[in-house]
Amino acid sequence: MSVQMRLSGDPEEIEVMVKVLAVVFQLDGSGLLHTNHGTAGVRCYLTARIPNKHDRSETTTPDQHR
Question: The organism sits in which domain of life (predicted)?
Fold first, then answer.
């Protein structure tokens, strides 16, 4: 099972949120930050999935997404 997420906000806050999400979810995506149109901040697109028991030993790190 996976979901696609759009994170929007301050770049430093997005970095913290990605680190927190990576504790629970396996994250995929480019991690590129895009400037928001019409509002302050940036946005980032990720796909999150709940790791199965075989994936838990291979946790993702936020550095893989930035």
Answer: Bacteria
Decide: pTM greater than 0.85. Answer: no
Q: Distance between CA atoms of 7 and 57, rounded to whole angstroms?
A: 26
Q: Identify the residue whose tokens are 């936020």.
A: 62
C-alpha–C-alpha distance, residues 12 and 65, integer Å: 14
**Which tens digit of pLDDT belongs to each residue from 2-26?**
999 999 999 999 999 999 999 999 9
Query: 26-38 in b/e burial notation, b at 16+ Cβ within 10 A?
Result: bbebebebeeeee
- CA dist 8 and 35 (Å) reads 9
Q: How far apart, in whole angstroms, are the C-alpha atoms of residue 30 and residue 60?
A: 13
> Tokens 């901040």 label which residue?
41
